[in-house]
Design a protein that fits this description.
This protein is α+β, with helices and mostly antiparallel strands. The protein has 2 domains: 2-86, no CATH class; 96-273, Immunoglobulin-like. The chain contains 5 helices and 15 strands. The chain has helices at 2-19, 27-31, 56-86, 235-247, 275-316, and strands at 37-38, 43-44, 96-99, 105-108, 111-119, 125-133, 139-145, 153-160, 165-171, 182-191, 195-201, 206-209, 218-220, 223-232, 261-262. A hairpin with a 4-residue loop joins strand 8 and strand 9. Helix 1 (2-19) packs antiparallel against helix 3 (56-86) and helix 3 packs across helix 5.
C-alpha cells in the first residue's frame, strides 16, 4: 500500500495540515511514549492534548518521513520482484489459462472429445505441456489429437490408462504463438462405467514464454466433471461414431500446408508420475500460487510507476 499510495499520502498529509491542522496527527507524537520528547515537534508528548504537528517544519518533516517510507517500500517491492525472478517466478505477468468444456454427459462406450484451449495469451509462447489426470475406472483415453493445434512440433505424447494420467508436450519455433487464444490439442476419451468423472490439470502443466528465459506464464489449471450415463451405446451409434472418426481423419496429422513434426513413439505408454510425484506437486501448489500472486502484485506496482514516470517524461517533453 505504501509503495502504491505512499507518495500521494505524503503530499496529501502536508496539504491537509495547512487546511485542518488540528485533525492531522504528528507520527512521532502518536506512537511515542507519554512524557517523551517528540524529535519533530520539539515538545513533550501529552496523549490527552492535541497531537497535531506543532509548526510547519514539523509538518514538513512528517510528510518527508512518509515519503521516505514509501520509497523504501517501493525498493522492497523491486528487490522482492528481482529475487522471485531469479528463482524462476515470472517477470512476465501470468495471464494464460487452459480451458476445457466444463460439462457434458455421455453413454458407456461413447468416445467424446475434450478440446484443450489456451486463452488470454498476452506474451508470445513457444512451448506448452499439458498434464491431465482422470479416473481410469470411469474413462480411458483413445488418443490425443493434434490435428487443429497451433503447435507444429511435438516431443511427448504419453497416455497411461492404468493410472489415469496423460501428457502432451509441444511448441513452435520463434516468434512462437502470439494470438490471444488457440487450440493446443484434443483428448479423445471413451466412457467405461456410469458415474461422475473428474478430469483436471496437474500443477506440472506449463506454458513457456518465448523470452529466452522459458518463464511459465500459465495462470489457471481448470478441472471439469462429466456424467457417464448408465446406458450403453447402440450398435448403430457405435458404427456411426467409428465412421465419423475415419471420414474426418480425426486421428490424422495436419495437412502439408501446415505440417507437424513429432518425435514421440505413439506405441510407448510409460509411467508419467508416481503417487509421490503427484503429492509433491500438490503440496507445492499453494506455496507456488502464493508466490505467483506476490510476484504479480509486485509487477503491477512497478508497471504502474513505470507508466506514471513515462507519462511525466512525455509531459515534460
Amino acid at each position: 500500500m505504501l509503495a502504491v499510495f505512499g507518495i500521494f499520502v505524503a503530499v496529501a498529509y502536508l496539504l491537509s495540515w495547512f487546511f485542518a491542522p488540528k485533525y492531522i496527527p504528528c507520527l512521532f507524537c502518536r506512537v511515542g511514549k507519554e512524557g517523551a520528547m517528540c524529535p519533530l515537534c520539539h515538545r513533550t508528548i501529552v496523549k490527552k492534548t492535541n497531537l497535531s504537528p506543532e509548526h510547519v517544519t514539523s509538518a514538513v518533516l512528517n510528510s518527508a518521513l512518509i515519503f521516505l517510507f514509501s520509497i523504501f517500500s517501493l525498493g522492497i517491492v523491486f528487490g522482492e520482484s528481482r529475487i522471485l525472478s531469479l528463482f524462476g517466478f515470472s517477470d512476465v505477468p501470468k495471464t494464460a489459462s487452459f480451458t476445457i468444456p466444463t460439462k457434458g454427459q455421455y453413454k458407456i462406450g461413447e468416445i467424446f472429445p475434450m478440446e484443450i484451449t489456451i486463452k488470454n495469451i498476452t506474451h508470445s509462447i513457444n512451448a506448452v505441456q499439458a498434464d491431465v489426470a482422470f479416473d481410469p475406472k470411469k474413462v480411458e483415453i483413445v488418443d490425443i489429437v493434434t490435428k487443429e493445434s497451433f503447435a507444429t512440433i511435438f516431443i511427448q505424447k504419453e497416455i497411461n490408462n492404468d493410472t489415469g494420467l496423460a501428457r502432451l508436450t509441444g511448441g513452435l519455433p520463434n516468434p512462437g504463438f502470439i494470438e490471444n487464444e488457440g487450440v493446443f490439442g484434443t483428448i479423445l476419451f471413451r466412457a467405461k462405467s456410469a458415474g461422475i468423472v473428474n478430469i483436471s490439470f496437474l500443477a506440472s502443466s506449463m506454458a513457456l514464454a518465448n523470452d529466452g528465459k522459458a518463464i511459465n506464464v500459465l495462470k489457471d489449471l481448470p478441472s471439469a466433471s462429466y456424467l457417464i450415463l448408465p446406458e450403453q451405446l447402440s450398435e448403430a451409434e457405435r458404427k456411426k461414431q467409428a465412421r465419423l472418426l475415419v471420414e474426418n481423419s480425426v486421428l490424422g496429422a495436419k495437412t502439408e500446408k501446415n505440417p507437424q513434426l513429432t518425435f514421440y513413439d505413439t506405441k510407448e505408454r510409460i509411467e508419467l508420475y508416481t503417487e509421490k510425484d503427484i503429492q509433491k506437486y500438490e503440496s507445492r501448489k499453494v506455496t507456488i500460487q502464493f508466490l505467483d500472486t506476490l510476484q504479480d502484485s509486485n509487477l503491477l506496482i512497478l508497471n504502474l510507476w513505470r507508466t506514471l514516470l513515462n507519462l511525466g517524461s512525455q509531459t515534460d517533453g
